[in-house]
Every structure is written in structure tokens, then in C-alpha cells.
Description:
The chain is of the alpha+beta class.
Amino acid sequence: MISEPQNQAWNYTSVNDSLVKLGLKCSELAKSSNNGINLNKLLSIVLATNEFENAVCEMEIFRNIGEPRGITTTICLNIFNQVNSNANVTIESLVNETILDLRGLPTEKFSKVRVRGLALGINQFNLTEDILFLKFNETDIQVEDFQTGYEYMELLCDSICEIKFKLIQFIELQHKIESIFQILRLFRPHPIHWKFYNLKSKSLFNHSSGTLRNIKYLSQEPKLIVNDLNKEEISKFYAFFKEHELDQRLLNTSNNHIDIALNRYEKAVLANEIVEEKITNAVSGLEALYLIERDELVYRFGLRISKVMSIFDYEHLETIKKLKTAYTIRSEFIHGQLSKEDKLEDILNFTLECLRKSIIVFLVLEKNGYKKEALIKKIEHGFVDKKISQELIDEIQKLTDELKFNLQQDYNVIKSNYNLQVIK
């Protein structure tokens, strides 16, 4: 942020007035151009006007950002582009945002994100006031989309996400976008990800930061279908993460056991891999959370996870049995063998659900002050001490009371499929 000198009177009203007059002049020139906007010609005309010179003089106030004439010229070019692309925009609002930006204060930054892995069974879905998902139709592809250099097939997606926030830097908006999709993947284990997006601002100084493209070859099925039955659940789940500041925790990685588990979960959900490799990643994520020893791994692995999962009404022995199978598949795959199990997808879905729920539990308990070793110790003691067991149950139950609509559902109901209308 700019440090305002003590010995200088900062008259932003004067700056605002001069830029508004310059903006109106640019707008007048652009609208009077009969043959479309020729930026070079229009710029040469406006640079010779009194409005431009007056604005340059006023922009001396921002000399520590850049050369005033250069800043003012950039502003002119962006005014021409804004007038050409958005008939509803007002010069006054653009100038106001520009001055805020030049002062290092938050301005409205926005993005249009093309999304894979999340489709809409309804026309639109407001995740929050600032995050809107729109149903995608091929007719939505416009001529300007091809100016990004993408071909027709690359422009296809499952939905469009429009995002706007008051922020200082574009990097903050990028972090917001990453956080949104990471939380949605924790809502259900579906490969929800952004395909590409642009970064824009209402400021005429830092108007655009270009287009970012996801170059990873990611899975696109099965999709999460947002409909009238599950849209409220998704919004509540996202609000829970925001309320507990877990969205920031997801971004501020420290490479601890939770971050490793999240990384393995993301790989299992997103990557185009064979089922055995996905199971291996999911098991590795659970190992990062629940194991600290180097002996009796399979036994400790199943026992501890089953204890936590039993709070979500998972049957103890069945959980141990399925996790033992998953662990065997993981071991065989690491040693170069493919599994002969008939129901690999079921094992994958069950293991992912255990990992998803565990990550959420560990995230919240970490925020409540729990270290991994202390939590593992409490889980272990809970098998022989009913009081300790009840303390653990109560702490996790407090979490599930808030997320009951999401965490208590049986994995058979929410396992991967192409039609999620069954979600309640």
C-alpha cells in the first residue's frame, strides 16, 4: 500500500474530477467512431487534449507507482476497451475503483471460471452472494472466447462460475478460486476443477491479469449434479468452512499430516488413474492421519479409523474388513500387481469416504488445538476407557451436528455415480 507523505495534501477529489473528465472525453471519442474503435487513432487524439494533460498533472500524486504519463495512457486504453465491451459501465464508477487501486486499497476483482466436474440440473446456483454457478450451454460460447486462443472443444465445460470479491491483488483472487474448488471436492469426492479462467478488475490501472489455464490432464467423471435437492447442503458445507476459517487453513499448507492426506485425497479424486492407484493414494492419505508407528500397521490402521467412523454410524467390523482389503490392494499395487478384487469401485468409494470424513474431522480438531499424536493417543485410550471414548465422541459429535446433513450419510448413498438426484 502507498505510504502517503506527511507534508503533502492528498486531494483525491481533484484527481477523481480530472480522471472523470478524461474518461468522458475518451468515451465521447469512442462512441463517435463510426468505423469501430481504432485504438491507435483514438489514443493519438486523446493524448493531444487538455483533459489528458490535466490528468497527467494530477497523477503526479502516484509517481511512486510509475511515470504519470504512462499511467494515464494505460487508463485511457482501458477506458476505450471498457466502453467498447460494456455499455452499462459508468466512467464515475471506473474512476472510483481506479483511485482505490492506485492507493493500494481493495477493489472489485472478478473472474469467469470454466468448470469441469460440476454440472447444474438447475439454471443457476448461488454458492454465496459472491459466487454464482451458471448452467453451461454451447450457445454461451462467444466470438471473444476464441480470442483466448482456445479451440471449440477446449471451450466446452460443465458449468460457468462467476466470482467477485473486494481484494487488493489478483493473487488473492487466485487463492479464492483454488479454495472454492478444494472445499467443493471435500463436499463429495468428485473431480471438480477449473479448466481455465480470467482475472479482471474494475480498476483502469490494473484492469486484467490475463487468462490462467489448467494444463493437467484431469478426470471429468463422475460429475456432481447440483439440483434443488442438494444445493442447500452444498451452501451450508461451504459456509461451515468459511465460518471456521478452514478455507484459509487449506491454503496455508505446512506439509503436516493433514496436508499430506489432502494431497493424496486430491490425487485420488482428480487424477486420471487406474482404480488401484486411486485406492493407493486414498490409503496413503489415511496412513498420514492415523499412523505414527512402524509395526502392526494394518491392525492399527483399521482399528483407529473404524473408531472414528463408528461415530458416523459405520459398522466397526465391516469398516475394518473393507480397509484391510484396501490396504492389501495398496500393497499389491506398490509391488507391481493389479488387484483381483471384483468390487474395486466400491472399495475405492468406501476408502475415499473414510478419508474425506477424516480430513474434515482432523481439520476441525486441529483448529481446536489437537496435535496428531494426542488425537491418536485419545483414539487408542478410547478402546479401554469409556470416559475418554465419550469425550472423543462428544467432540466429533459437535462437529457432526453442524455437518450432519453431509457427514452422516452412508457411503453407499453418496458413492460416485452419474446421477446424484438421490442425495437428500
